[in-house]
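Example record for the data management plan.
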Amino acid sequence: MAADTESKLQLVHRHIRTFPDFPKKGILFRDICPILKDPATLTAVIDLFEEHVRKNHPQVDLIVGLDARGFLFGPLLAQRLGVGFVLVRKKGKLPGNTVSVEYDLEYGKAEAEIQEDAVTPGQKILLIDDLLATGGTLHAAIELMKKQQAEILGCMVIIELKELNAIDKLKPHSVFSLLQY
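Corresponding structural encoding:
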């Protein structure tokens, strides 16, 4: 089992491209697009997340995906687990009544929102996104889930940029990352 997990992680690692100075000078951009292009690698990502959830969070009720790349992996994982999937979107993108939180960006502020009836009090949720950098968006999603009185089991990402120490911003919530850079 461990060898299978390691080979899947290596496959995922091989399908992440690095672009220096994108989107601006000094940024080393980690591109997940090759994962999506290769069915075996995409399957490996979902397998690894599924294995983690079944082992550590078998009681999960919902997978909550962050705008926009969390939408790529979250529904696939939710379907495998037989649970629902919920969207956290940028402000103004969801119909009906919504709940929102404002959060800081490097260069300003943004708002994230969820449909008011998407998560009910006490539901056990896991948050998913592609990348953990500064933790701003994931922290906002956690605050949204608190407003909804959800039980936050943890967060999951493909890539964690360790040098940015976003884990500290998300405490006491755990973060499961497939790869760390």
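Summary line stored alongside the record: Residues 46 and 77 are 6 Å apart (CA to CA).
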